[in-house]
């Protein structure tokens, strides 16, 4: 970005700093891979046989049948969120604030914290829905919790776009990611712009429609690609 100085981490010339950069990249990349695996498994456990438009009773019946799976999915979602932040922190540690891309990565980290706070809040709604369904709670309460889950995902789309843009620009400027990885990040950002508009009652733009369900997978694909590239570069001889 404009205020950055063109000092690349790979050219620091200080062994201790270079070792710290590599450790940050390795730990961040490993956390990113494990976190995305947790998200993949967690997303696969979320039931989709009924939609909010089908009515409270249908949603409550679906959630009750999948209550145990949902509790596990909530835990996996939280784990993935924390590990994603570890990846972002690893990038920040590896690129000084005054270096090229440093400011962008720090913007991405701040936006990432906000994003995961919103997502974490939405998973609390999912836990309320699952607990209520498993313990004979009313269908309206279960549906309310289920609505809160997907509403949180939609609201998180805006800070996710900022997070994605910051990390894409920062990693590209710091020469930590090739153009094809940056392209995956940009596509994920565009997908989250669409996801932020999913407030329709029915159809693909419904809260629990296909757009909202598929969009997190674009982040998973981008983060997996970025993490693999970071691991390769961190272990490349200087």
Features:
238 residues; 74% helix; elongated
Structural account:
By secondary structure, this protein is an all-alpha fold. The protein has one domain (14-234). 74% of the residues lie in helices and 0% in strands. The protein is built from eight helices and no strands. It is elongated, with a radius of gyration of 19 Å.
Separation of the first and last Cα atoms? 25 Å
- Into which percentage range does the β-strand content fall? under 5%
- Total beta-strand segments: 0
Largest beta-sheet details: none
Summed up, the domain count is: 1
Order of SSEs, N→C? Answer: HHHHHHHH
Shape: elongated
Question: How many helical elements?
Answer: 8
Kindly state the percentage of residues in helix: over 70%
Topology of helices and strands:
Layout: H1 15-44, H2 56-65, H3 67-94, H4 102-134, H5 139-155, H6 157-173, H7 179-195, H8 210-234
Task: Give a quick precis of the structure.
This protein has 238 residues and is an all-alpha fold. It contains eight helices and no strands.
